[in-house]
Structures are given as C-alpha cells and as structure tokens.
Amino acid sequence: MMLAKSDSSDGEAMATVSKSTSVPAAESSGEPVVADVEYVLSEDLKDLSNIDTQLQTLLERLDSKEWMVVFEALTSVRQLAIFHPELMQPILGEVVASVTKALKNPRSALCKTAVMASADIFKGYRESLLDILDPLLLQLLLKASQDKRFVCEEAERTLEVMTMWIPPQAMLPKLQPYVKHFNPKVRAKASVCVYNSASRLGVEDVEQIGLESLLKIAAAQLNDRLPEAREAARKLLLHLHVVYQKNPPDISHSDLPESEVPASKQDPWEQYCLNSLPAVTAQAVLRVTCVDS
Fold it and tell me: Which ranges carry the TOG domain (predicted)?
C-alpha cells in the first residue's frame, strides 16, 4: 500500500491507495487522489542502470493504464533525454506524443512530471523537435494558463527552458499563432514566450527575421486584455528599440506621397514606426519606447 497525499495547492484529502488503483478525490474537482511521489530536479537525476530494458519497454510503459507505471516511464524519458538523447532519438516522435497525452491527464502528479519531462526533452533535442512541437507547445501553454499553481508554475518554467534551448529564429514562427489565440491566458503566456525568445536576438538576428515583423507582433499585444501580455509586449518593444538604435535601417521617402513626406527632420525611430505601423498603433509604440511623438 502507498500513502496518498496531494500537493498542498491541490487541497485533496489524505487516503490510502494501492500502486495500481486510482481512487477519486472527494472534492468537486473530480481529480484523483495523488499518490506520494517525488519530483526530482533535472540536475539530481541519476543515469539509468538498465538502459536497454528501459528503452525497449518505454513506449509500452508510457501507454500503460496504470498511472504509476506511466509516472515511472516519464522519469525514464527524463533520464534518457539527459544522459542518452541519441538512444531515444529514433522514437522521439512517439515519446513526445505520449508526453503530450500525459499533460492532459487530470492527475496532477502525472501532469507535473510530464511538464518536467518536456523541459528535459527541450534541453536534449532543441530544434530537432520543431516538426513535432506544436501539440506539446499548445498543452504547455494551456497548463501555464490554468489556475492550479502546482502545475502552472512548472509549465511556466518549462516554457522558459524552451525559449532558452530552441533558437529564436526557429521558435518565434512556432509561437506567432498563439499570440492570436482565442484564450486570453494562452495569448499572454505566448506573448511572454515571444519576448523571452526574441530578447536573445542580436542586431544581425533581428535583420534576418525582420524588425518590422517583430515590431508588428509586439504592437498588436499592447492593447491585450491581460496585463501579462501587455507587459511582455512593452518589454519586447524596448528591446527592439535598443536593437534599432545599434543599427538603424535606412528610411527612404521615395515611396511616400509628397503630402506624407515630413517637412522637418523626425527622430529616426519615430519615423520608422510611423512608416511601419498604422498611426494610432505607432503612437502607442512611441509612448512605450519613450520617444516624444
């Protein structure tokens, strides 16, 4: 028998359950009781002692109906991603699909472990995940958006790991659809990810991606419903302003109608914003970046 307990943030009752039995919680949330499990930090994980067996049975264990078996398999995923990423590479797509499935599990212990496994996968595989990233990314954004801090804070940390280990040139296109998501909390978390990723860009990187496209992404979030999204947009605009000042692009008036050519010399950043954005949006951007308009 195992002593079952919940994380204090879940507020679930104490109960005794067997290793293979799921007992529903009494609360209205309907979430099963969480067994007594240990969440090991990545740096404290040890290598597997029986690598071949663990690898051969990994997919079967990840697909088990017994949650403790899945929990242990997710720990194996973490160990393989850290110590032997090349061995798990051939089945990486199936592993990521199973981790994504575990993220949807109502049991907090399983969900949180899947979130932690995602972080280790990001560190181990980086941009090689791009073709299979979308379903995992959406689930992490959803988990980071939920009210249960037990999982939410872990998902936020994992999203930050993602933006640190996957190059921004590859990550930003993946994030762009989610800053327009219908769920405002998902939009906010995606906006934070966009800032965290884009803030790693230097002058040459911004030129490669396109300053104007990044400017438009940030400007669009300035009027978002949630303060978190607006703050991420402001921080991104300030970063882009700094990058612009290091290497301002040439601005030509040759394509503008004569009536729109400024009579007096404008601040280059102000001029760039007015040329790149609708007037009202440009004024909002200029207020954020402390440029008198």
Answer: 44-283
